[in-house]
Write a structure and sequence with these properties.
7 helices, mainly alpha, elongated, about 130 residues
Length: about 130
């Protein structure tokens, strides 16, 4: 398969995963902001734009971050293998929620329970 076809197919899978995860817009700015909110590696708006329009495929490390953000398998995102199609859980509709979900999934069970208790207290205070 030629490189241009691979880039275009990656772009299509990325768009599907973004939409499935609740991100309506295929905005390069929004994608870069989301990526940068969950990764210290950082990505420019220009790079995100190239991913979205099929001009480039991110490095494997960036694909792993994207896959984790969008709740898909990295292999599916990169190669389109049928291992896992994108799933809509969990959905995040804004950058703050996406970042919160990403960080929450990284906690161990003990700390997840603490975070849930803290959220319950905050909701009750409101």
């Amino acid at each position: 398969m030629n490189n241009q076809v691979e880039r275009e197919q990656f772009s299509e899978r990325l768009s599907v995963a973004l939409e499935t995860a609740g991100f309506q817009s295929n905005s390069a700015t929004r994608l870069a902001e989301l990526f940068n909110s969950v990764s210290s590696e950082g990505v420019s708006i220009h790079a995100a734009r190239k991913w979205l329009i099929g001009q480039a495929i991110p490095t494997q490390n960036k694909i792993r971050v994207l896959a984790q953000m969008l709740n898909v398998e990295p292999e599916w995102l990169r190669f389109g293998t049928p291992a896992q199609n994108p799933t809509p859980e969990p959905q995040a509709t804004d950058l703050l929620t996406a970042s919160l979900l990403h960080n929450f999934t990284r906690l161990d069970e003990k700390h997840k329970k603490v975070a849930v208790q803290m959220l319950r207290i905050l909701v009750e205070l409101d």
